Amino acid sequence: MRRVVIVGGGAIGSAIAYFLTRDSDGERFEVVVVERDFSYRQASSALSASSIRQQFSTAINIRMSLYGIDFLRHLGQTLRVGDEMPEIGLVEPGYLYLASQAGADVLRENHAMQKAHAVDVALLTPDELKARFPWISTEGIALASLGLSGEGWYDGYSLLQAFRRKAVSQGVRYVQAQATGLRRDGRSLTGVQLDDGETLDADVVVNAAGAWAAKVAQWAGIDLPVRGRRRSVFSFSCPQALPGCPLLIDTSGIWLRPEGRQFICGFAPPEDRDHDDAPLEVEYEAFDGFIWPALAERIPAFEAIRMTGAWAGYYEMNLFDHNAILGLHPDCDNLYFANGFSGHGLQQCPAAGRGIAELIRFGEYRSLDLSPVSFARILENTPLLEKNVI
User: Edge-to-edge strands of the sheet including 179-185?
Assistant: First the structure.
């Protein structure tokens, strides 16, 4: 029985643990997940806006997310533990991308890629957009793209807990501790060191440490271009209802979506203000100075909004090309990476979890070929460019 130690017990690490121990036949694994904080107070899985989309510009992201939506739709059967049926509140109102004249050609190119992979998406002219969503101002809009199914949002923390409960029911052990180093023998790792002085023996180590993944890689002498980038999310109320409101991405870069009877929104700060590992302090000044004016211009009803809360969390940003990094690095034979999802982690955790489990079990991908997001592209300096980054 091979001993697998997973560093990081968020949605990615827990999905890998679940898939590794799911099958009752074949090779069995002794799986230990090291998680520094069982409250997940700063975990991206708990602080994310928890959405899923199919509107990507690259085939691998589309394939991973198509698998993800199918997995989420059948979660009740897949991750059920005894009589306890997981519920994540999945809804599918779609994503709505708005494009100015300058961005219209990219939207058309993306649409062609999406339709080639059977994504249920439609392009809308400004008149069609207004007819479907009369509460939107189409000023400055040349084209829009709307996901008709397979896109929406859910409770990310509940998804994480569902994976964790199911993994535990399958024999996975969770340890609340801080990993502090890796024990290495030549090209292989033999253990994970913890802050209490204990070392967990390992035949396989998985780096699923999220925003802190670069430090884990550094212990093995590997440079991982992943950093924690702060993102603020604001909740607000509006006295007027917006029928059928999807997750909307404005030309300003601001995104918004309904959250119960309220809304949440966020944005990516300019590159020169998007610092690594910034303190998780909400950028309140951005709401009044940038977000509110832009939202009110796009949706007139939002002139009367009132902010009701806010929080900040980390994107585990892959600085190389903003896409996942999965699999082995050539400098280490048994350290598997599942990092750098850049905001796509929750929606891609089912595909990534299954893929890493297959790599460990069989030495190859058998269900979905995830090799396009391997370390090879980084070492060869051939980025996988995703045009639809939020």
Answer: 179-185, 188-194, 199-201
Select from 320, 33, 36, 50 the least CA-distant residue to 158.
50
Q: Counting beta carbons within 10 angstroms of the beta carbon of residue 281, is it exposed (0 to 12), middle (13 to 18) or buried (19 or more)? A: exposed
The amino acid occupying position 252 is: S
Tens digits of pLDDT across the chain (390 residues):
999 999 999 999 999 999 999 986 678 899 999 999 999 998 888 888 899 999 999 999 999 999 999 999 999 999 999 988 999 999 999 999 999 999 999 999 999 999 999 999 999 999 999 999 999 999 999 999 999 999 999 999 999 999 999 999 999 999 999 999 999 999 999 999 999 999 999 999 999 999 999 999 999 999 999 999 999 999 999 999 999 999 999 999 999 999 999 999 999 998 888 899 899 999 999 999 999 999 999 999 999 999 999 999 999 999 999 999 999 999 999 999 999 999 999 999 999 999 999 999 999 999 999 999 999 999 999 999 888 777
Unique residue bearing structure tokens 């050539």: 330
Sign of CA dihedral 372, 367, 78, 165: negative
Q: In this structure, what token pair is assigned to residue 189? A: 């790792």
Report the C-alpha gap between 32 and 29 in whole angstroms.
Answer: 10
Six-digit token pair at 243? 């029928």
Per the structure block, which two tokens stand in for 324? 């996942």
Distance CA 180, CA 36 (A): 11
